[in-house]
Protein backbone atom coordinates (compact mmCIF):
# COMPACT_ATOMS: atom_id res chain seq x y z
CA UNK A 1 0.00 0.00 0.00
CA UNK A 2 2.84 2.40 0.79
CA UNK A 3 4.55 1.82 -2.53
CA UNK A 4 1.33 2.49 -4.41
CA UNK A 5 0.83 5.84 -2.66
CA UNK A 6 4.44 6.84 -3.40
CA UNK A 7 4.03 5.98 -7.07
CA UNK A 8 0.78 7.92 -7.38
CA UNK A 9 2.15 11.02 -5.66
CA UNK A 10 5.26 11.06 -7.84
CA UNK A 11 3.16 10.86 -11.03
CA UNK A 12 0.99 13.72 -9.78
CA UNK A 13 4.06 15.82 -8.93
CA UNK A 14 5.57 15.37 -12.38
CA UNK A 15 2.35 16.35 -14.15
CA UNK A 16 1.83 19.44 -11.98
CA UNK A 17 5.43 20.63 -12.34
CA UNK A 18 5.36 20.20 -16.12
CA UNK A 19 2.15 22.20 -16.25
CA UNK A 20 3.73 24.92 -14.10
CA UNK A 21 6.46 25.74 -16.60
CA UNK A 22 4.45 25.68 -19.84
CA UNK A 23 1.70 28.06 -18.75
CA UNK A 24 1.21 31.33 -20.56
CA UNK A 25 0.22 33.51 -17.62
CA UNK A 26 2.47 34.01 -14.63
CA UNK A 27 -0.27 33.73 -11.98
CA UNK A 28 -1.21 30.18 -13.03
CA UNK A 29 2.45 29.19 -12.93
CA UNK A 30 2.85 30.37 -9.33
CA UNK A 31 -0.29 28.57 -8.13
CA UNK A 32 0.84 25.30 -9.72
CA UNK A 33 4.23 25.73 -8.07
CA UNK A 34 2.42 25.78 -4.72
CA UNK A 35 0.99 22.38 -5.73
CA UNK A 36 4.53 21.02 -6.14
CA UNK A 37 5.34 22.16 -2.60
CA UNK A 38 2.20 20.51 -1.25
CA UNK A 39 2.94 17.18 -2.94
CA UNK A 40 6.46 17.40 -1.54
CA UNK A 41 5.06 17.76 2.00
CA UNK A 42 2.86 14.67 1.52
CA UNK A 43 5.87 12.65 0.32
CA UNK A 44 7.99 13.73 3.27
CA UNK A 45 5.22 12.62 5.61
CA UNK A 46 5.05 9.19 3.99
CA UNK A 47 8.84 8.85 4.29
CA UNK A 48 8.45 9.21 8.09
CA UNK A 49 10.40 12.49 8.38
CA UNK A 50 8.27 14.89 10.47
CA UNK A 51 10.85 17.67 10.92
CA UNK A 52 11.54 17.98 7.22
CA UNK A 53 7.80 17.90 6.39
CA UNK A 54 7.10 20.74 8.83
CA UNK A 55 9.98 22.82 7.48
CA UNK A 56 8.98 22.32 3.86
CA UNK A 57 5.34 23.13 4.66
CA UNK A 58 6.21 26.39 6.38
CA UNK A 59 9.07 27.60 4.20
CA UNK A 60 8.40 26.03 0.82
CA UNK A 61 4.67 26.68 0.64
CA UNK A 62 4.42 29.71 2.92
CA UNK A 63 7.40 31.97 2.30
CA UNK A 64 8.62 30.88 -1.16
CA UNK A 65 5.16 31.31 -2.68
CA UNK A 66 4.81 34.68 -0.95
CA UNK A 67 8.07 35.83 -2.56
CA UNK A 68 6.83 34.89 -6.03
CA UNK A 69 3.43 36.49 -5.46
CA UNK A 70 5.09 39.74 -4.40
CA UNK A 71 7.21 39.59 -7.54
CA UNK A 72 4.01 39.20 -9.57
CA UNK A 73 2.52 42.24 -7.88
CA UNK A 74 5.57 44.45 -8.49
CA UNK A 75 6.18 43.31 -12.05
CA UNK A 76 2.63 43.72 -13.28
CA UNK A 77 0.67 41.03 -15.07
CA UNK A 78 2.29 40.48 -18.44
CA UNK A 79 2.95 37.36 -20.46
CA UNK B 1 20.76 40.11 -45.68
CA UNK B 2 21.61 37.77 -42.81
CA UNK B 3 21.52 34.03 -43.25
CA UNK B 4 20.45 33.13 -39.73
CA UNK B 5 18.30 30.02 -39.47
CA UNK B 6 15.80 29.44 -36.72
CA UNK B 7 17.05 26.61 -34.52
CA UNK B 8 14.20 24.92 -32.63
CA UNK B 9 15.70 25.16 -29.15
CA UNK B 10 12.77 23.57 -27.36
CA UNK B 11 12.81 20.26 -29.23
CA UNK B 12 16.61 20.00 -29.29
CA UNK B 13 16.93 20.54 -25.56
CA UNK B 14 14.07 18.08 -25.00
CA UNK B 15 15.94 15.33 -26.83
CA UNK B 16 19.30 16.07 -25.21
CA UNK B 17 17.81 16.14 -21.73
CA UNK B 18 16.00 12.82 -22.26
CA UNK B 19 19.30 11.18 -23.13
CA UNK B 20 20.94 12.68 -20.02
CA UNK B 21 17.98 11.50 -17.95
CA UNK B 22 18.42 7.87 -18.95
CA UNK B 23 22.15 8.03 -18.22
CA UNK B 24 21.60 9.57 -14.76
CA UNK B 25 18.98 7.01 -13.74
CA UNK B 26 21.19 4.13 -14.83
CA UNK B 27 24.21 5.53 -12.99
CA UNK B 28 22.31 5.81 -9.70
CA UNK B 29 20.56 2.46 -9.90
CA UNK B 30 23.55 0.38 -10.92
CA UNK B 31 25.40 1.09 -7.67
CA UNK B 32 24.86 -1.81 -5.35
CA UNK B 33 23.77 -0.20 -2.09
CA UNK B 34 23.20 -3.18 0.24
CA UNK B 35 20.16 -3.03 2.41
CA UNK B 36 21.81 -3.72 5.74
CA UNK B 37 24.65 -1.23 5.95
CA UNK B 38 25.63 0.18 9.31
CA UNK B 39 25.38 3.92 8.98
CA UNK B 40 26.59 6.64 11.27
CA UNK B 41 22.99 7.39 12.17
CA UNK B 42 22.66 4.34 14.39
CA UNK B 43 25.70 5.34 16.43
CA UNK B 44 24.37 8.88 16.81
CA UNK B 45 20.95 7.65 17.90
CA UNK B 46 22.62 5.63 20.64
CA UNK B 47 24.71 8.67 21.66
CA UNK B 48 21.46 10.58 21.96
CA UNK B 49 20.63 8.69 25.12
CA UNK B 50 23.60 10.27 26.87
CA UNK B 51 22.52 13.79 26.01
CA UNK B 52 19.01 13.34 27.33
CA UNK B 53 17.16 14.91 24.39
CA UNK B 54 14.12 13.20 22.90
CA UNK B 55 14.27 14.56 19.34
CA UNK B 56 17.29 13.11 17.54
CA UNK B 57 17.22 15.58 14.64
CA UNK B 58 17.44 18.52 17.09
CA UNK B 59 20.56 17.05 18.67
CA UNK B 60 22.22 16.64 15.28
CA UNK B 61 21.34 20.18 14.15
CA UNK B 62 22.20 22.03 17.34
CA UNK B 63 24.84 20.01 19.16
CA UNK B 64 26.70 17.63 16.88
CA UNK B 65 26.57 20.08 13.94
CA UNK B 66 26.19 23.35 15.79
CA UNK B 67 28.82 25.17 13.75
CA UNK B 68 26.90 24.54 10.53
CA UNK B 69 23.82 26.13 12.08
CA UNK B 70 25.91 29.21 12.89
CA UNK B 71 26.96 29.41 9.24
CA UNK B 72 23.35 29.03 8.09
CA UNK B 73 22.29 31.93 10.28
CA UNK B 74 25.07 33.99 8.71
CA UNK B 75 23.77 33.18 5.21
CA UNK B 76 20.25 34.25 6.21
CA UNK B 77 21.65 37.49 7.60
CA UNK B 78 23.49 38.30 4.37
CA UNK B 79 20.37 37.59 2.29
CA UNK B 80 18.27 39.85 4.51
CA UNK B 81 20.93 42.55 4.17
CA UNK B 82 20.82 42.35 0.38
CA UNK B 83 17.02 42.50 0.24
CA UNK B 84 16.96 45.48 2.60
CA UNK B 85 19.51 47.27 0.44
CA UNK B 86 17.52 46.77 -2.76
CA UNK B 87 13.95 47.27 -1.70
CA UNK B 88 13.96 49.64 1.24
CA UNK B 89 11.57 52.58 1.10
CA UNK B 90 10.67 55.18 3.67
CA UNK B 91 6.98 55.54 2.92
CA UNK B 92 4.42 54.61 5.50
CA UNK B 93 1.57 53.53 3.25
CA UNK B 94 1.83 50.02 1.92
CA UNK B 95 -1.63 49.17 0.66
CA UNK B 96 -3.85 51.50 -1.29
CA UNK B 97 -7.39 50.90 -0.06
CA UNK B 98 -8.81 50.24 3.35
CA UNK B 99 -9.66 46.58 3.61
CA UNK B 100 -12.90 44.90 4.54
CA UNK B 101 -14.35 45.03 8.05
CA UNK B 102 -14.48 41.22 8.24
CA UNK B 103 -10.84 40.90 7.32
CA UNK B 104 -9.76 43.41 9.97
CA UNK B 105 -11.69 41.73 12.77
CA UNK B 106 -10.65 38.20 11.82
CA UNK B 107 -6.97 39.10 11.57
CA UNK B 108 -7.06 40.74 14.99
CA UNK B 109 -8.56 37.55 16.40
CA UNK B 110 -6.11 35.23 14.68
CA UNK B 111 -2.89 37.10 15.37
CA UNK B 112 -2.40 36.10 19.07
CA UNK B 113 -3.23 32.46 18.30
CA UNK B 114 -0.63 32.32 15.54
CA UNK B 115 1.99 33.93 17.80
CA UNK B 116 1.22 31.45 20.58
CA UNK B 117 1.48 28.50 18.21
CA UNK B 118 4.79 29.73 16.82
CA UNK B 119 6.25 30.15 20.30
CA UNK B 120 5.05 26.67 21.28
CA UNK B 121 6.69 25.07 18.24
CA UNK B 122 9.89 26.98 19.00
CA UNK B 123 10.13 26.11 22.70
CA UNK B 124 9.15 22.42 22.43
CA UNK B 125 11.63 21.80 19.62
CA UNK B 126 13.62 19.24 21.55
CA UNK B 127 10.63 17.06 22.53
CA UNK B 128 8.52 16.88 19.38
CA UNK B 129 8.98 17.79 15.73
CA UNK B 130 9.62 21.48 15.36
CA UNK B 131 12.36 23.82 16.40
CA UNK B 132 13.75 27.27 15.88
CA UNK B 133 13.44 27.61 12.11
CA UNK B 134 9.84 26.43 11.91
CA UNK B 135 8.68 28.52 14.88
CA UNK B 136 10.40 31.66 13.65
CA UNK B 137 8.81 31.48 10.22
CA UNK B 138 5.36 30.88 11.78
CA UNK B 139 5.81 34.08 13.81
CA UNK B 140 6.77 35.94 10.65
CA UNK B 141 3.60 34.72 8.95
CA UNK B 142 1.56 36.17 11.80
CA UNK B 143 3.20 39.54 11.20
CA UNK B 144 2.42 39.13 7.49
CA UNK B 145 -1.28 38.68 8.30
CA UNK B 146 -1.36 42.00 10.11
CA UNK B 147 0.61 43.72 7.34
CA UNK B 148 -1.86 42.86 4.60
CA UNK B 149 -5.05 43.67 6.47
CA UNK B 150 -4.29 47.00 8.11
CA UNK B 151 -3.39 50.06 6.13
CA UNK B 152 -0.71 51.79 8.16
CA UNK B 153 0.82 49.00 10.21
CA UNK B 154 4.55 48.52 10.28
CA UNK B 155 7.03 46.94 12.66
CA UNK B 156 9.48 49.59 13.90
CA UNK B 157 12.97 49.21 12.55
CA UNK B 158 14.74 49.64 15.89
CA UNK B 159 12.84 46.74 17.51
CA UNK B 160 13.92 44.30 14.80
CA UNK B 161 17.53 45.50 14.93
CA UNK B 162 17.62 45.08 18.72
CA UNK B 163 16.21 41.54 18.62
CA UNK B 164 18.54 40.40 15.86
CA UNK B 165 21.62 41.84 17.54
CA UNK B 166 20.78 40.26 20.88
CA UNK B 167 20.18 36.84 19.38
CA UNK B 168 23.25 36.80 17.17
CA UNK B 169 25.65 37.97 19.87
CA UNK B 170 24.31 35.59 22.52
CA UNK B 171 24.75 32.57 20.21
CA UNK B 172 28.46 33.27 19.88
CA UNK B 173 28.73 34.11 23.60
CA UNK B 174 27.28 30.73 24.60
CA UNK B 175 29.79 29.05 22.32
CA UNK B 176 32.65 30.96 23.92
CA UNK B 177 31.47 30.10 27.45
CA UNK B 178 31.48 26.46 26.38
CA UNK B 179 35.06 26.95 25.15
CA UNK B 180 36.09 28.36 28.54
CA UNK B 181 34.43 25.69 30.66
CA UNK B 182 34.86 22.53 28.62
CA UNK B 183 37.60 23.29 26.02
CA UNK B 184 35.11 22.65 23.21
CA UNK B 185 33.35 25.39 21.23
CA UNK B 186 29.58 25.01 21.86
CA UNK B 187 30.14 22.38 24.54
CA UNK B 188 27.28 21.34 26.75
CA UNK B 189 28.04 22.95 30.11
CA UNK B 190 24.58 22.88 31.72
CA UNK B 191 23.43 19.70 33.47
CA UNK B 192 21.88 17.12 31.18
CA UNK B 193 20.71 13.99 32.96
CA UNK B 194 19.42 10.95 31.15
CA UNK B 195 16.62 10.68 33.70
CA UNK B 196 15.12 13.98 32.54
CA UNK B 197 14.38 12.89 28.97
CA UNK B 198 10.94 14.09 27.92
CA UNK B 199 10.70 17.01 30.34
CA UNK B 200 10.95 20.63 29.31
CA UNK B 201 14.16 21.44 31.18
CA UNK B 202 16.41 18.76 29.73
CA UNK B 203 19.36 18.57 27.43
CA UNK B 204 21.55 21.36 28.74
CA UNK B 205 22.06 24.22 26.30
CA UNK B 206 20.13 22.65 23.41
CA UNK B 207 16.70 24.27 24.04
CA UNK B 208 18.42 27.57 24.85
CA UNK B 209 20.24 27.69 21.53
CA UNK B 210 17.14 26.74 19.58
CA UNK B 211 15.15 29.55 21.19
CA UNK B 212 17.89 32.01 20.24
CA UNK B 213 17.86 30.71 16.66
CA UNK B 214 14.08 31.08 16.60
CA UNK B 215 14.18 34.71 17.72
CA UNK B 216 16.77 35.58 15.08
CA UNK B 217 15.03 33.80 12.23
CA UNK B 218 11.63 35.25 13.20
CA UNK B 219 12.81 38.84 13.24
CA UNK B 220 14.77 38.44 10.00
CA UNK B 221 11.85 36.93 8.11
CA UNK B 222 9.59 39.73 9.39
CA UNK B 223 12.04 42.25 7.97
CA UNK B 224 12.18 40.44 4.61
CA UNK B 225 8.38 40.25 4.38
CA UNK B 226 7.94 43.90 5.29
CA UNK B 227 10.50 45.01 2.68
CA UNK B 228 8.77 42.96 -0.01
CA UNK B 229 5.30 44.37 0.66
CA UNK B 230 6.06 48.06 1.00
CA UNK B 231 6.02 50.05 -2.16
CA UNK B 232 6.32 53.69 -3.21
CA UNK B 233 2.90 54.78 -4.27
CA UNK B 234 2.35 58.03 -6.11
CA UNK B 235 -0.56 58.88 -3.84
CA UNK C 1 0.28 -5.78 -7.14
CA UNK C 2 0.37 -4.02 -3.79
CA UNK C 3 2.75 -6.63 -2.40
CA UNK C 4 5.03 -6.26 -5.42
CA UNK C 5 5.29 -2.49 -4.92
CA UNK C 6 6.27 -2.74 -1.25
CA UNK C 7 9.68 -4.39 -1.75
CA UNK C 8 12.69 -2.19 -0.94
CA UNK C 9 14.33 -2.49 -4.37
CA UNK C 10 11.18 -1.43 -6.18
CA UNK C 11 10.70 1.57 -3.88
CA UNK C 12 14.29 2.62 -4.54
CA UNK C 13 13.70 2.41 -8.30
CA UNK C 14 10.47 4.43 -8.06
CA UNK C 15 12.09 7.17 -5.96
CA UNK C 16 15.15 7.46 -8.20
CA UNK C 17 13.24 7.60 -11.47
CA UNK C 18 10.59 9.97 -10.12
CA UNK C 19 12.94 12.53 -8.62
CA UNK C 20 15.28 12.43 -11.64
CA UNK C 21 12.36 13.10 -14.00
CA UNK C 22 11.34 16.02 -11.77
CA UNK C 23 14.91 17.36 -11.88
CA UNK C 24 15.05 17.22 -15.65
CA UNK C 25 11.62 18.87 -15.99
CA UNK C 26 13.04 21.74 -13.95
CA UNK C 27 16.20 21.82 -16.09
CA UNK C 28 14.12 21.93 -19.26
CA UNK C 29 12.24 24.91 -17.87
CA UNK C 30 15.50 26.63 -16.91
CA UNK C 31 16.92 26.35 -20.43
CA UNK C 32 13.93 27.22 -22.58
CA UNK C 33 11.84 29.82 -20.77
CA UNK C 34 12.21 33.53 -21.40
CA UNK C 35 10.50 35.24 -18.46
CA UNK C 36 12.86 35.66 -15.55
CA UNK C 37 10.39 34.65 -12.83
CA UNK C 38 9.71 31.37 -14.64
CA UNK C 39 13.46 30.69 -14.52
CA UNK C 40 13.40 31.12 -10.74
CA UNK C 41 10.43 28.77 -10.44
CA UNK C 42 12.34 26.12 -12.40
CA UNK C 43 15.33 26.48 -10.04
CA UNK C 44 13.03 25.94 -7.05
CA UNK C 45 11.54 22.79 -8.64
CA UNK C 46 15.04 21.40 -9.19
CA UNK C 47 15.92 21.97 -5.53
CA UNK C 48 12.75 20.20 -4.37
CA UNK C 49 13.56 17.15 -6.44
CA UNK C 50 16.97 16.70 -4.83
CA UNK C 51 15.49 16.89 -1.33
CA UNK C 52 13.05 14.12 -2.25
CA UNK C 53 15.88 11.94 -3.60
CA UNK C 54 17.94 12.36 -0.45
CA UNK C 55 15.21 11.39 1.98
CA UNK C 56 13.75 8.70 -0.26
CA UNK C 57 16.98 6.74 -0.64
CA UNK C 58 17.26 6.08 3.12
CA UNK C 59 13.67 5.00 3.62
CA UNK C 60 12.83 1.53 4.91
CA UNK C 61 9.28 0.22 5.04
CA UNK C 62 8.94 -0.62 8.74
CA UNK C 63 10.73 2.41 10.17
CA UNK C 64 9.46 5.00 12.63
CA UNK C 65 10.35 8.65 13.10
CA UNK C 66 13.62 9.40 14.99
CA UNK C 67 12.05 10.65 18.21
CA UNK C 68 12.68 8.81 21.46
CA UNK C 69 10.24 8.66 24.31
CA UNK C 70 9.16 6.18 26.97
CA UNK C 71 7.24 4.01 24.50
CA UNK C 72 9.83 3.92 21.69
CA UNK C 73 13.32 3.25 22.99
CA UNK C 74 14.44 0.78 20.33
CA UNK C 75 16.90 2.57 18.08
CA UNK C 76 17.28 -0.25 15.56
CA UNK C 77 14.07 0.48 13.63
CA UNK C 78 14.35 4.25 13.60
CA UNK C 79 15.11 6.38 10.59
CA UNK C 80 18.50 7.96 10.04
CA UNK C 81 18.56 11.49 11.54
CA UNK C 82 21.60 12.84 9.67
CA UNK C 83 19.97 13.37 6.23
CA UNK C 84 17.04 15.10 7.96
CA UNK C 85 19.37 17.65 9.54
CA UNK C 86 21.21 18.33 6.27
CA UNK C 87 17.98 18.80 4.31
CA UNK C 88 16.69 21.23 6.96
CA UNK C 89 19.70 23.48 6.40
CA UNK C 90 19.40 23.15 2.63
CA UNK C 91 15.72 24.17 2.53
CA UNK C 92 16.36 27.36 4.51
CA UNK C 93 19.37 28.39 2.43
CA UNK C 94 17.52 27.69 -0.83
CA UNK C 95 14.73 29.99 0.24
CA UNK C 96 17.17 32.76 1.19
CA UNK C 97 18.97 32.65 -2.17
CA UNK C 98 15.64 32.66 -4.03
CA UNK C 99 14.47 35.74 -2.11
CA UNK C 100 17.65 37.62 -2.96
CA UNK C 101 17.41 36.73 -6.65
CA UNK C 102 13.77 37.80 -6.91
CA UNK C 103 14.53 41.13 -5.24
CA UNK C 104 17.24 41.76 -7.84
CA UNK C 105 14.74 41.04 -10.62
CA UNK C 106 12.20 43.44 -9.11
CA UNK C 107 14.76 46.24 -8.82
CA UNK C 108 15.95 45.71 -12.41
CA UNK C 109 12.35 45.92 -13.63
CA UNK C 110 11.89 49.20 -11.78
CA UNK C 111 15.00 50.64 -13.45
CA UNK C 112 14.55 49.55 -17.07
CA UNK C 113 11.15 47.87 -17.42
CA UNK C 114 12.32 44.62 -19.03
CA UNK C 115 11.53 41.06 -17.97
CA UNK C 116 12.53 39.15 -21.08
CA UNK C 117 16.06 37.79 -20.87
CA UNK C 118 16.63 38.27 -24.60
CA UNK C 119 16.27 42.01 -24.21
CA UNK C 120 18.61 42.45 -21.24
CA UNK C 121 21.68 43.42 -23.27
CA UNK C 122 23.12 46.53 -21.67
CA UNK C 123 26.47 44.89 -21.15
CA UNK C 124 26.93 43.90 -24.78
CA UNK C 125 27.89 47.20 -26.38
Any overview of this molecule?
The complex is a heterotrimer of chains A (79), B (235) and C (125). In chain A, 85% of the residues lie in helices and 0% in strands. Chain A is built from three helices and no strands. The radius of gyration of chain A is 14 Å and the shape is flat. Chain B has a domain at 52-86 and 101-227. Chain B has eight helices and no strands. In chain B, helix 3 packs across helix 4 (66-87) and helix 5 (101-123) packs antiparallel against helix 6 (132-149). Chain B is globular, with a radius of gyration of 24 Å. By secondary structure, chain C is mainly α. Chain C has helices at 2-5, 8-32, 36-56, 81-112. Chain C is elongated and about 65 Å long. The N and C termini of chain C lie far apart (63 Å). Chains in contact: A-B, A-C, B-C. At the A-C interface, helix 1, helix 2 and helix 3 of A face helix 2, helix 3 and helix 4 of C.
The fraction of residues assigned to DSSP E strands of chain C is under 5%
Using only C-alpha atoms, the radius of gyration of chain A works out to 14 Å
CATH architecture of chain C: Orthogonal Bundle
Indicate the structural class of chain C: mainly alpha
Query: Which structural class best describes the helix and strand composition of chain A?
Result: mainly alpha
Helix content of chain C: 55-70%
Radius of gyration of chain C: 21 Å
- Total count of domains of chain C: 1
CATH class of chain C: Mainly Alpha
Continuous helix count of chain C: 4
- Oligomeric state as shown: heterotrimer
Enumerate the spans of chain A where pLDDT stays under 50 for 5 or more consecutive residues: none
β-strand number of chain C = 0
* Strand portion of chain A: under 5%
Q: Report how far the terminal alpha carbons of chain A are from each other.
A: 43 Å
Instruction: State mean pLDDT of chain A (0 to 100 scale).
Output: 91
Helix content of chain A: over 70%
Largest interface: A-C, 44 and 52 residues
Amino acid sequence: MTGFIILGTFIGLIIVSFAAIVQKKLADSIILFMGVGLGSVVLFFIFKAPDVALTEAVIGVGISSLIFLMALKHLGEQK
Amino acid sequence: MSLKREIPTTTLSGFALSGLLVLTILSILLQNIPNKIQTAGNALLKLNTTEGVANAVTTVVVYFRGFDTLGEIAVLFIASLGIGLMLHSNTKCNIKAESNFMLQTASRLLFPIIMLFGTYVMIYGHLSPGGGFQGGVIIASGVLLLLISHKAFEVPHSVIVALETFAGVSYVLIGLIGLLVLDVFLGNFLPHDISQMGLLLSGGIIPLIYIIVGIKVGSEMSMIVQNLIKRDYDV
Amino acid sequence: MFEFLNQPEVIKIIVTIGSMILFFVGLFGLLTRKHIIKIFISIAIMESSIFLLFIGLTFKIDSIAPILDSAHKDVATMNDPIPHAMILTAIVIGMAVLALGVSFAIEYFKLTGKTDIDEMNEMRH
